[in-house]
Design a protein that fits this description.
Layout (H helix, E strand, L loop, with lengths): L1 H22 L4 H17 L9 H15 L11
Helix pairs in contact: 1-2, 1-3, 2-3
Length: 79
């Protein structure tokens, strides 16, 4: 079940997250890295997250990751 749920989550949200990141000023390379990173973290924390809230967890992680990369205010050197 875990594999199927993660596969479904990736299919539904990877491109949405990628487009969201590009829209918010991330370079393509950074957006690709963050999408990958978000799903790696989702796998690592899968047991800690309610399966019905996985998509929300991924977006919360993306928000934190964007801030860590300087996209809260969009750092010029990351564009």
């Amino acid at each position: 079940m875990k594999k199927e749920l993660l596969t479904q989550l990736y299919k539904e949200y990877a491109s949405i997250i990628y487009r969201y990141l590009l829209k918010h000023g991330c370079r393509k390379e950074v957006a690709e890295e963050l999408v990958h990173e978000s799903f790696v973290k989702t796998i690592e924390h899968f047991e800690d997250v309610d399966p019905e809230k996985l998509s929300a967890w991924v977006f919360i992680y993306i928000g934190h990751a964007m801030n860590l990369k300087g996209y809260g205010g969009i750092a010029a050197d990351e564009r």
